[in-house]
Design brief:
The complex is a heterotrimer.
Chain A: H1 2-11, H2 20-31, H3 33-50, H4 52-55, H5 87-123, H6 125-139, H7 143-154, H8 158-185, H9 188-195, H10 200-236, H11 248-258, H12 265-292, H13 294-297
Helix pairs in contact in A: 2-3, 3-5, 3-12, 5-6, 5-8, 5-10, 5-12, 7-8, 8-10, 9-10, 10-11, 10-12, 11-12
Chain B: H1 2-20, H2 26-31, E1 40-44, H3 64-68, E2 76-78, E3 103-105, E4 108-114, E5 119-124, E6 129-130, E7 140-141, H4 144-155, E8 168-175, E9 178-183, H5 190-194, H6 205-210, E10 224-230, E11 234-239, E12 246-249, E13 252-255, E14 261-265, H7 270-278, E15 284-289, H8 290-299, E16 304-309, E17 312-318, H9 329-338, H10 341-348, E18 353-354, H11 376-380, H12 386-395, E19 403-409, H13 413-427, E20 432-438, H14 440-448, E21 455-461, H15 465-473, H16 487-498, H17 502-519, E22 522-524, E23 527-534, E24 538-539, H18 553-557, E25 560-561, H19 563-568
Parallel strand pairs in B: 1-14, 1-15, 19-20, 19-21
Antiparallel strand pairs in B: 2-3, 4-5, 5-9, 6-7, 8-9, 10-11, 11-14, 12-13, 15-23, 16-23, 17-21, 17-22, 18-23, 24-25
Chain C: H1 2-29, H2 34-39, H3 48-58, H4 64-78, H5 91-126, H6 131-145, H7 148-162, H8 178-212, H9 215-223, H10 227-238, H11 240-256, H12 259-264, H13 270-280, H14 283-311
The chains are: A mainly alpha, B alpha+beta, C mainly alpha.
Chain lengths: 300, 571, 318
């Protein structure tokens, strides 16, 4: 039987031999053009973040009061702020900060979500009961307020913001992972693996985790967007990463708002950056979900 | 006869010209026209982001007088007839200082100093009535007992500032309208502490018995009654129909207040309060930052403006009470010369600042000495001389500079912008700053517990000419961030407090000011201008802010609204 | 079912206990002493005597566990959440003053969200993968991506310059003056509602898509029922689930407030109460608000979960 199956495979057209990743990318561009566009922008965003020092024409804290509040020009692509700093450079460095905050916080959040979700969903029992009560308690508090209190405890600073966002988003996201684990848990092959005496760790690592990867990946992309937006909200309230760090949120809520009339570009630039990046990440995440979710595959 | 007639015609023509001449200056606009009764005044107060914190003076809360000062009156208040818009020379923007010749008796009709023992005898006005308050009290006259009660309640409060009334020997009444304060020794701030000060409100005993914490119990002799308080949004005050005071405008006496209602608005967001002013939802906005002035002038050209110098000095305090470079005066002076203060005034503040206005404020009369009159060593600190700065640093043993940490409050957007600018200047002489922003409570705690970093960037209110020196440069004071401690200096400060002759006192204080400026425990920075804006239908007003310690009540009592003009303008 | 409800209610107790402990301790971990803050209000340095007197007056001279027990005891036996350290008013009173305001804003936002999400979600599902579907879905994601405070500021600043209009700034209860009240609430409700509608719309769409594929829908079509009738009668009922989900999701905002909108639009709600209390280290207010919000949200979520049982016959509770 295996031999004929091999023959069948060997006889199928070369197209089917593409690696899963390439196959995925092709499907993305073909079936979900908007999501693909989002993905492209995400890549650009990442590149900005990684190569900010090279791409930015000026430093992010290059103060020169003589050039204050100049509108966009060839020399200063997005104009200058009230201290004469180039807004375009600050936006690029802001991308770097958003990449760091977004990805680190999302990474931490996803790790926490997976840890809580998998252990809670797989082992159930007392741990699940207590953990879910704790998650309940956590989720009953308005998210921003929790952030505010924790930031007040830890003080302003990039590392603290990442930890705070990671914690808050992670605990909330554990529900989703738990739900996925619950459904996987009852499936046939898990039963099969366990009945053959496979150790718990092996079952988790080789069977449970790979099968919840799809929602976890989608969760991760959502968290990146959420972390970036949450940091901007904290900046508005004065609790974000402190100046002179050029996060888009603090640029928007600081000089952007103060000089909205004299220098609309001060608010437009970071605002558009924020909106475009978060929008792209969300569209990409949506497309990912549609492509990876087996239930949705049939519906196109 | 003919000359008289011609004179009369000229006078009439002049008056007509002033009336139709438009709103060239606040004086002309506000003095023409007959006062109208009625209307509601919507105010965006100077402390617009803060709601009322306390309705009880015994809480010793600094903001009490701001919210309750239209309801409760005090022994003394500012004489608003001496304000600029009335032809006088005072703008009454000082937070807690009334120049002695601008002082008027509010509840006190007259007062007299007597010797042996040193005492002041205060005669209260007769016929000042507390209104009816259902469930609390019936309308009755204010008597000396109310004053005594208010004083004793303050003195016995568990939240009392330590030593606040130590100079007082006893307070007693000889008849229902006389109060006598006997002092152990002369104390210059006697009237500030219980005359027109932060907690000097006089209220009926019935109210304090019922519990002053509840705003619904508030009942005073003042021009307005507190009718609504929505914490976080607004305070509503309604006219007190039996208020005693009158105002003379253009020769006619009018019963106060003119307005039916005054509403204080609490708004946390700058964009919102600017928009509210622009659309006429606020009649007065007491604190407009200079950054917003141009856009407002373009979008609402009919607004009236008053510019005043901020009542707080901005500085970078350098700790002299811990080991480090700041113990050396040469380092401190060097850093002052390394910062380009004139450029900060012209480029950062766009000209909307004064180079030199702290610790004394130009409005402090004889206490203030302008920069030109200062000795050269003080003037030098306000020039930009990075060469000399580097030389001094090298002399002091820091030829390659050094680095230090600076704490700053993230709650103040101006400071968050200004400090990086200062850092940029200092870096040019090799001194590097590490900025440590902190949230307000944590920032303040660091100072009170003296766990703050070597540098501390803050603004501190002037308050009044004596307090401004005492609170920041006397040993172990709360608001002394640099930790300045000089027993000789402390002693001379005490001398100033006990000096009854004002001229002598001013001389001592000027001396102290010169000395501390020279010794430079701070990097002295420019003081920005602030603006007050109001719509032209707000009359008998010229941008005054306080008629007592943070007390605008008497000012609002004298304002009237030109309803016809308001309608005509489309609001 | 009864057993399930009882179990869930019992589970509330450890949840709330955890919550109260966490909140009590965390709040006191925040650096910045309230005594320092109070003392710094005044010009004169606070001597040791003053500090001790204040601490006694505020009950801070007791050890931590005594303070906690006193606080819990007060709540359980007299419903007393303590008094604000700054205003000296009962915390319960402050919360009761702010809660209706927050609730009204949350309710209005939900109404806006639903009035957008239901028609768009249904239309998107029925006309799946058409240009209109894509456009609407993209628009809803866009609404999520724009920071609310930016949108709020734009709405405040530019209409005031162009048309001389800005929202009301003085709060009056709806019952006293509905027009002025709505004049203040409607703009933030719309901004909040747009963000919410994005989530709800997607839920709606997904739910509708699943339902539309069910056998009984195909049967109805086969029977010749008009599309509209099919959609309305069969699909919509099942699709109420996203609506209930929305209520559950929105519960923290309904009770806990939307801080950013409150700040920009001068709405004296729970969010600002909490923000101010945190800023001033007003511990009784912070802990009181957290408890009330926590309790209310957990209860609402219980009701939401029970409603799932009513709406979706597939869900059964052991």
């Amino acid at each position: 039987m295996t031999a004929s199956a091999d023959n069948v495979l060997a006889a199928s057209p070369p197209r089917a031999r593409r690696g899963p990743l390439l196959d995925f990318v092709v499907r993305l561009f073909r079936d979900k053009p908007l999501g693909a566009a989002g993905g492209v922008i995400c890549v650009l965003f990442l590149l900005c973040g990684l190569f900010a020092n090279v791409l930015a024409p000026y430093g992010f804290n290059q103060i020169s009061p003589i050039h204050r509040l100049q509108p966009p020009s060839l020399r200063f692509l997005f104009g200058t702020d009230n201290l004469g700093r180039d807004v375009f450079s600050r936006c690029i460095y802001g991308a770097q900060l958003s990449v760091i905050i977004g990805f680190c916080a999302a990474g931490l959040a996803t790790a926490i979500s997976v840890a809580i979700g998998v252990f809670s969903g797989y082992f159930r029992g007392k741990f699940d009961l207590i953990a879910q009560r704790f998650v309940d308690a956590w989720m009953s508090f308005p998210e921003l307020i929790v952030l505010i209190v924790v930031v007040s405890v830890l003080g302003p600073g990039m590392v603290q913001i990442i930890v705070v966002l990671g914690l808050a988003l992670g605990i909330a996201g554990s529900r989703i992972v738990r739900g996925a684990v619950l459904s996987v848990r009852e499936s046939m092959y898990i039963h099969a693996a366990r009945s053959t005496g496979a150790k718990t760790r092996r079952v988790l690592w080789r069977h449970v985790l790979p099968n919840v990867m799809a929602p976890v990946i989608v969760l991760f992309t959502n968290r990146v967007a959420a972390a970036i937006l949450a940091e901007s909200g904290l900046s508005f309230l004065g609790l974000g990463v402190p100046p002179p760090a050029p996060t888009w949120g603090s640029m928007l809520s600081g000089s952007g708002r103060a000089y909205m009339y004299q220098g609309p570009w001060l608010a437009m630039a970071p605002g558009l950056c924020l909106t475009v990046v978060v929008f792209s990440i969300s569209m990409f995440g949506d497309a990912l979900r549609d492509l990876l979710d087996p239930r949705m595959r049939g519906s196109r | 006869m003919l000359r008289l007639r011609r004179f009369g015609l000229t006078l009439l023509a002049g008056m007509l010209a002033a009336w139709f001449g438009g709103v060239a200056s606040p004086g002309a606009a506000n003095d023409a026209g007959k006062p109208q009764y009625g209307g509601t005044l919507n105010v965006g107060p100077i402390y617009i982001t803060l709601s009322a914190l306390s309705w009880d003076p015994a809480d010793f809360n600094w903001k009490f007088n701001h919210d309750a000062g239209a309801v409760y009156e005090q022994l003394f208040a500012a004489d608003l007839s001496k304000s600029v818009h009335n032809g006088g020379k005072y703008s009454f923007v000082n937070e807690a200082y009334i120049p002695p010749d601008a002082l008027r008796g509010e509840l006190a009709e007259s007062w007299e100093w007597k010797q042996n023992p040193l005492r002041v005898e205060i005669k209260l006005r007769k016929g000042v009535m507390f209104p009816d308050k259902p469930g609390i009290m019936k309308s009755r006259e204010l008597t000396a007992d109310d004053v005594i009660n208010a004083y004793h309640r303050l003195n016995a409060s568990p939240k009392k500032i330590e030593g606040y009334f130590d100079y007082v020997d006893k307070v007693e009444t000889t008849d229902p309208h006389t109060v006598v304060f006997t002092f152990k020794h002369f104390f210059a701030e006697w009237d500030y502490r219980f005359g027109w000060g932060y907690q000097s409100a006089i209220y009926p005993k019935e109210v304090s018995d019922a519990g002053m914490a509840d705003w619904r119990h508030a009942n005073g002799s003042g021009p307005f009654m507190l009718t609504d308080f929505v914490s976080g949004n607004s305070n509503t005050y309604t006219k007190n129909p039996i208020y005693w005071d009158k105002e003379t405008i253009a020769g006619t006496e009018y019963k106060l207040p003119f307005l039916d209602k005054v509403v204080y608005h609490t708004i946390k967001d700058e964009a919102t309060w600017i928009a509210a002013l622009r659309t006429g939802k606020l009649d007065i906005l007491e604190g407009v930052r200079w950054q917003n002035v141009d856009s407002l002038k373009k979008s609402a050209p009919q607004l009236q403006w008053h510019r005043w110098l901020a009542q707080a000095g901005t500085f970078l305090a350098m700790r002299v009470d811990v080991d480090g470079p700041f113990k050396d005066i040469r380092v401190r002076r060097a850093l002052n010369m390394a910062v380009n203060k004139p450029e900060i005034v012209s480029a950062y503040y766009n000209g909307n600042a004064e180079l030199f206005a702290y610790p004394q404020h130009p409005e402090y009369g004889g206490y203030f000495e302008p920069l030109e009159k200062m000795p050269d060593s003080v003037k030098e600190l306000f020039t930009y001389d990075p060469e000399k700065a580097r030389k001094l640093l090298a002399e002091a043993g820091y030829p390659n500079g050094f680095s230090f940490k600076v704490m700053v409050c993230s709650c103040n957007p101006d400071h968050m912008d200004l400090l990086p600018l200062v850092a940029a200047y200092l870096e040019q002489v090799g001194v590097k700053i590490e900025i440590q922003p902190m949230e307000y409570a944590a920032f303040l705690s660091a100072m009170t517990s003296r766990t703050m970093t070597a540098g501390y960037f803050m603004a501190n209110g002037h308050t009044n000419p004596t307090t401004t020196i005492r609170k920041s440069f006397v040993t172990a004071q709360l608001w002394n961030p640099s930790g300045w401690s000089d027993p000789a200096f402390d002693q001379r400060m005490e001398d100033a407090y006990e000096e009854p002759d004002e001229g002598q006192r001013q001389a001592i204080v000027r001396d102290l000011t010169r000395e501390i400026l020279d010794k430079a425990p701070y990097i002295w920075l420019p003081t920005p201008y602030v603006y007050t804006a109001w719509w032209p239908w707000v009359r008998n007003y010229g941008g005054e802010l306080r008629a007592g310690a943070v007390r605008p009540g008497p000012i609002y009592a004298r304002i009237w609204i030109d309803q016809d003009m308001k309608k005509q303008m489309g609001y | 079912m009864q057993v399930y409800i009882t179990r869930r209610l019992l589970a509330l107790i450890p949840t709330l206990f955890f919550a109260s402990l966490i909140v009590f301790v965390t709040v006191r971990l925040i650096p910045g002493n309230v005594i320092d803050l109070m003392l710094s209000q005044n010009d004169i340095s606070a001597g040791k005597m003053n500090r001790q007197a204040l601490e006694a007056a505020l009950g801070f001279d007791q050890p931590m566990h005594i303070q906690y027990l006193r606080w819990i005891g007060g709540i359980l036996f007299s419903g007393d959440l303590g008094r604000s350290l700054w205003h000296n008013t009962p915390v319960t009173e402050e919360i009761l003053q702010r809660l209706p305001v927050t609730f009204e804003l949350g309710l209005l936002a939900m109404m806006v969200a639903l009035s957008l999400a239901i028609p768009i979600g249904v239309y998107s599902a029925v006309r799946q993968d058409t240009a209109a579907d894509y456009a609407m879905r993209s628009f809803s994601i866009l609404m999520l991506a724009v920071p609310s405070f930016w949108l709020g500021t734009l709405v405040i600043v530019f209409p005031s310059i162009w048309w001389g209009w800005s929202p009301e700034i003085q709060y009056v209860p709806f019952t006293r003056n509905p027009i002025q009240n709505l004049g203040q609430m409607i703009v933030p409700a719309i901004i909040l509602g747009f963000g919410l509608s994005a989530i709800t719309m997607r839920l709606m769409r997904t739910m509708m898509l699943e339902v539309l594929r069910q056998d009984y829908i195909r049967t109805a079509w086969a029977k010749g029922l008009s599309e509209g009738l099919v959609v309305m009668r069969h699909a919509l009922r099942n699709a109420m689930i996203p609506v209930i989900t929305l209520i559950g999701l929105q519960a923290p905002v309904l009770i806990g407030g939307a801080v950013i909108m409150e700040q920009i639009f001068v709405i004296p709600g729970m969010g600002l109460l909490l923000l101010e209390a945190v800023g001033q280290r007003d511990y009784p207010v912070i802990t009181g608000v957290f408890l009330v919000v926590g309790l209310a949200v957990v209860l609402i979520n219980l009701i939401v979960d029970l409603s799932y049982g009513l709406l979706d016959p597939k869900v059964r509770y052991r």
